[in-house]
Amino acid sequence: MLSAEAGLARCARALWRHRSCGRSFRCVQTQAQFEYPASQEPEGPEAHAIPAGLATPRQLVRYLDDFVIGQENAKKVLSVAVYNHYNRVRANLAATTQDELEWEEDTLTMEEGVAPVRLMPHPQRIHAHYPLQARQSFPLFEKSNVLVIGPTGSGKTLLAKTLARVLDVPFSVSDATSFTQAGYVGDDVDMCVQRLLQAANWDPYRASTGIIYIDEVDKVARKSGGSGMDSTRDVGGEGVQQALLRMMEGSVVTVPAKGGAAEAPPMNGPGRSRSGPRGPNAPATKSDTYSIDTSNVLFILSGAFVGLDNIVKRRVAKGSIGFTAPLASSNLEDQSNNASPPFFTPNKSSAGPHYLDLVEPSDLVRYGFIPEFISRLPSLTTLSPLTPQDLRRVLTEVKGSLISQYTALFGYSGVEIRFSSGALDEICRKAAERGGGARGLRGIMENILLEPMYEVPGSNIRHVLITERVVQGLDRPLYWAKGEGTAFWAAWAAEEERHL
Ligand SMILES: Nc1ncnc2c1ncn2[C@@H]1O[C@H](COP(=O)(O)OP(=O)(O)OP(=O)(O)O)[C@@H](O)[C@H]1O
């Protein structure tokens, strides 16, 4: 249960987010009424927090900087995409609901200690007032889902997760390799919506404005794509793309309620059917099914796209500029007339320019994606592999870095652990050598610290020093007992001097 103070802080944050609405809010627990004139700036703890709902792209990038090293272009592209997406969502919902509907955000509930912030009106109310056909005729803003291309462990998931956290929207991660076309063994693509609903604590309103992150999307490239990337999958790849594109565009997905059919073993075979009502006006009760409209869900798709750089390289070598592939989407055809397609934003990473920076939709078509699919992903960004210098910053500088985590872990046992600069460099060198980006750092740390984590608890050890030779496996970690602090500091200083 949140304390009253924390509850009020949360209310204040919600009010600040929605200050431009000029609405009043009532806390159902305390019955307190809050008013926020549009011009009023918050005071107290909220003044220092990021005004998430309306944070500008620049503020979002600054926030990301605390957690993600490098990847400047990806930070910009994602921040702009997220900012535009949520502005678009607000505008669309305002267009569909103004005056006729009561806004859910008028009431902040504080059930079970949580104060869920209702960003949007209940989708069912929108559906009740405006049938799907009517809503489709509104001049609504088009959606911009994002495609993120980058090597493993470079921060793709971290970027999306961090943005979802600052925006306080539900976030789900799914792996495209587990998806199959409906009716075949494997996960239906609807599964990602179910995960989102789960992440939203089974709150369909929040889920319908969340972020769905789908990793390894390059694995659903069709086999006949022309570059032979994935020979194990054929029509299933295209079937999954078709299903995903419908969902990205905005469709109503019926999700069984908690403990419902979706959690039972999947039925296989083309005759697969679901129980429960379908369609936008289907009732959404906790005991039955939920209908989630994905029109306001932001999709971020990512993958390493191994081999794509060769496709780009070949195209560039042939001097082909623009769109040479037979693109079905008029959206893409429009872009082909531009000298510099809006699809492409050059990457100014520390690793320098590389061929993936020049990716165009036609390259993705050659890679095995249907044009209709990539036209639903108008924002694209590439991430660079992390250099050993980047890894060093990941290890030591970001908020909640591994070094700070392990230091705190030993601190709980009253033990001080230090890593010499040489040790840190050696850890990063090893991680870079292994590949896998920053993902490899934790494994190396666990390996090095296994012995001290075993020896220290229950012993009289109070200081631990990890040197370069320890990381290289040439020495054992160095230990000092209580009262030997001076010797520990002297040894550490000597190590640092040796490394200079
Ligand atoms: N640029 C970065 N800055 C800080 N930490 C990073 C960065 N890149 C990766 N990490 C760390 O490495 C781990 C893996 O990162 P992440 O899951 O974002 O990789 P990914 O690019 O999504 O890889 P994959 O495609 O394999 O899923 C996380 O613990 C994350 O904290």
Automatic annotation (TrEMBL):
Comp. bias regions, Low complexity: 269-279
Gene3D superfamilies: 1.10.8.60, P-loop containing nucleotide triphosphate hydrolases
Domain Clp ATPase C-terminal: 386-480
Keywords for the protein's UniProt record, in alphabetical order: ATP-binding, Nucleotide-binding
Ranges where the AAA+ ATPase domain occurs: 142-327
GO biological process, one term: proteolysis involved in protein catabolic process
GO molecular function: ATP binding; ATP hydrolysis activity
Chain positions covered by the region annotation Disordered: 258-288
UniProt-listed InterPro entries: AAA+_ATPase, ATP-dep_Clp_protease_ClpX, ATPase_AAA_core, Clp_ATPase_C, P-loop_NTPase
GO CC term, one of those recorded: mitochondrial matrix
Keyword NAD: no
PANTHER family for the chain: ATP-DEPENDENT CLP PROTEASE ATP-BINDING SUBUNIT CLPX-LIKE, MITOCHONDRIAL (PTHR48102:SF7), ATP-DEPENDENT CLP PROTEASE ATP-BINDING SUBUNIT CLPX-LIKE, MITOCHONDRIAL-RELATED (PTHR48102)
Protein known as: AAA+ ATPase domain-containing protein
UniProt organism field: Phlebiopsis gigantea (strain 11061_1 CR5-6) (White-rot fungus)
